[in-house]
Specification:
The protein is built from 10 helices and no strands. By secondary structure, it is an all-alpha fold. The longest helix has 21 residues, at 110-130. The protein is globular, with a radius of gyration of 23 Å. It starts with a helix and ends with a helix. 35% of the residues are buried. Residues 6-25 have low confidence and may be disordered.
Length: 186
């Protein structure tokens, strides 16, 4: 039979422990909340819930996208690169990494911009290779090829080839990309 003191301690712990459990939100729950905030466009709030020292690819990916949407492509590259390395077969992670590299190219000096554009192209190509039905990766690769000169790996013929692949999975988007190419026809 428990003593009065141990009964009091058991009663106290049964009251306190659920309170502690509610205050310390599990990491998965925080990640879910951060994703909801991201989807609502509240990128700063999303970042505030995430640990910058998190090692899982999903957290790194969300941190990188938050920074990208806030216009900090340098930090976005850092986290998206970690996410892409942790989940090397993720077409989506590589596509976002390519976007971040392109963003860095826009704000870099001309020599650094060339390196960033090359990194963007490689990320887009790898993303499209990993998942040939990823419309975002194909669209980003198409735009890269259509906008960049041949010396940076772009070109009309390459863009046309990607537009045909896009048409096979999303005819409306494929038609739109064909229309964009017609506007630029050499």
């Amino acid at each position: 039979m428990p003593s009065k003191r141990s009964a009091t301690l058991i009663g106290l712990f049964s009251i306190l422990i659920p309170g502690f459990a509610q205050e310390s939100t599990p990491a998965k729950s925080r990640l879910r909340q951060a994703e909801e905030l991201y989807n609502r466009g509240q990128y700063d709030s999303s970042l505030s819930l995430l640990s910058r020292s998190a090692r899982d690819a999903r957290s790194q990916f969300l941190i990188g996208r938050d920074y990208y949407m806030l216009g900090d492509c340098k930090r976005a590259c850092k986290y998206l690169k970690k996410a892409a390395m942790a989940a090397a077969e993720s077409s989506e992670y590589l596509d976002w990494l390519g976007r971040a590299y392109e963003g860095r190219a826009w704000t870099s000096n001309p020599l650094s911009a060339i390196v960033m554009e090359k990194n963007a192209r490689q990320a887009f190509e790898r993303a499209a290779q990993l998942n040939r039905k990823n419309p975002d990766a194909l669209s980003d690769l198409f735009n890269y090829y259509a906008q960049e000169p041949a010396v940076l790996g772009g070109g009309y013929e390459k863009a046309e080839s990607v537009a045909e692949k896009m048409w096979a999975i999303d005819p409306a988007q494929g038609d739109f990309e064909q229309w964009k190419l017609a506007q630029r026809r050499p």
